[in-house]
Every structure is written in C-alpha cells, then in structure tokens.
Amino acid sequence: MHRASWLLLLLGCATATPPVTTTTPEAPPEPTTAAAPEAPPIELRLATFNIQVLGPTKAAKPEVMATLGSIIRRYDLVAVQEIKDVSGQAPLRLLEASNAEGADYALALSERTGREPDDRHSQEQYAYYYRRDRLEPVGEGALYDDSGADHFQREPFLQEFRVRGTDRTFVMINVHTRPRAAVSEIAAMEHVFGWAKARHGAHAIIIAVGDFNAGCGYASEEELDALPIHGEAYDWVVPHSADTNLADSECPYDRIVVAAPQGTDLVDDWGVDRAFDDRNVSDHWPVWANLRFAP
C-alpha cells in the first residue's frame, strides 16, 4: 500500500463519528394518593343481670340501689330480669340510680309477663337500660305471643336497637325461664328466634340473654347440647363451665345466645362481672359480652 493511502486510512479511522446511543427518559412516577385509614369497628358492651326480686323493698335501700346503678354504668346496655313491683316504681328508681354522676340512660320496660291464666302467679317485668348517646330503640318492644302453645311461664321480651349514627341494628330477647321447666323453655326459645326473624328479617342479628336456669339441677350439659337451639346456627357465648351465681355451687344459669350472619365473629369477649359479694344486691352476677360490628 502506498504511504499516502495508508495515511488517508489512518486519518479516516481517527475522525470517524462514534455511534450515538439514544435513551428514552423514564416517565415521572404517577402521583400516589394515601389510602384512607380503615374505620375502626363499632364496639358495644352489653350485659344481662337477674336482679333478684327488684321490688319496693330493694328499691328502698339507697346503698343497694347505688351499687346497682354503678354496675349498669359499666355497660352500654343491660337486660334486667326479675322486676317484681306492681306499682312500677322499682325500675324507675333503678333508672334514677343509673343516671347518677351525670350518666344518661333510658329505659325500655316490658308489660307484666305471665299473661296466661296458669302463669299469673309468677308475673314479672323485663327491662333494658341503655345509654342514650350510644343506642336508640327501633319501634316498640313486644312480649312473645305465647298464647297458642304456652311454652313459657314468663313470655320473653323482644326489643330492637340501633347504634346511633349508623345503620347497625340488632334485636334483643330477654328471658327468665321457670327453673323446673328450664330445658323445655330453652328448647322453645328456637320458636322465639324464628318469631324475631319473621318480624325483623332473616339476616337480623338476634341476641337472647337472661336467666336461662341453664345448669346444675335444672338443666344438664347433655340435655342442653341435644337441643336444636344449641346447633351451629347459634353461638352460646357463655359456656357450661361458667359460674354466674353467688351460691357455693358453680352454676351457669345466665346465658347469652347469638344468631347472627357473621357467626361467632360478632362477640369479641365475654365475662362474669363479680362486682359484689353482698346477696342483698342479688344472688346472680351480671354476665357481659363485647360486640364488634364492622364499620
């Protein structure tokens, strides 16, 4: 190769334009919106309390009524059994005691039970004491119509409630069974649940509470477990091993039974409130449950 040609080739290589690499710039990140925090669940604490013979004698004892009022103030709703006062003053005295210290409770009171001729010797009333800032009644309460079969000595008392500021509702059933007929009356509670569903819809939350006399000499575990109302559709919150009375014997008389679309998820916790040891107050302790509703 001639020297001139060689020089031209060398110069051509030295001045060649390097290849150009192009890149597409990344798109700016999309703006993100912070997820709204999940609303907390709606929580309620309810209790059932057999206040032994709540009548004029007990209502005239200021220290006893003060104790009862302080117990009710622990809860959003308390279902009370064994009100025995023809004058109707005892449940109102209890409302006054509950509203001490600036509390604001209201009262949903049943008619006198024992409406059938053979039951009139054992008439009582049921009551619901509820916090007005948390709950409001929906419609009028009603005693179960027991005129056809006469299953109950004291007809259960039904009342629907709404959680204030929400569309969450639930139906309460309050009952005090006849001790010697406890098993048959507890079995008949399935009819009461059906009656409540017919009135409030198949998907209603229904909570039966009260003194079921569901234990010791009145009802055995085997008898209770064999009842349809002890099936999968019902959540027996208070187990057979509980002790809900002040007697030396350990008896799970007082119960909370739930039928709800969410099953056992509705009840977050439960317990027996051993708030006193004075039998002038009652021979039963309150039994409570915490409810958790989806927001």
Q: Any overview of this molecule?
A:
- This protein has 295 residues and is α+β, with helices and mostly antiparallel strands.
- The chain is built from 6 helices and 12 strands.
- The protein has helices at 3-15, 56-59, 62-72, 89-98, 182-200, 221-225, and strands spanning 42-54, 77-83, 105-109, 125-131, 135-143, 157-163, 169-176, 206-211, 235-236, 254-259, 267-272, 287-293.
- The strands form 2 sheets. A 6-stranded mixed sheet has the order 3-4-2-1-12-11.
- α5 links the parallel β7 and β8.
- The chain is globular.
List the SSEs and their pairings.
Blueprint: H1 3-15, E1 42-54, H2 56-59, H3 62-72, E2 77-83, H4 89-98, E3 105-109, E4 125-131, E5 135-143, E6 157-163, E7 169-176, H5 182-200, E8 206-211, H6 221-225, E9 235-236, E10 254-259, E11 267-272, E12 287-293
Parallel strand pairs: 1-2, 7-8
Antiparallel strand pairs: 1-12, 2-4, 3-4, 5-6, 6-7, 8-10, 9-10, 11-12
Helix pairs in contact: 3-4
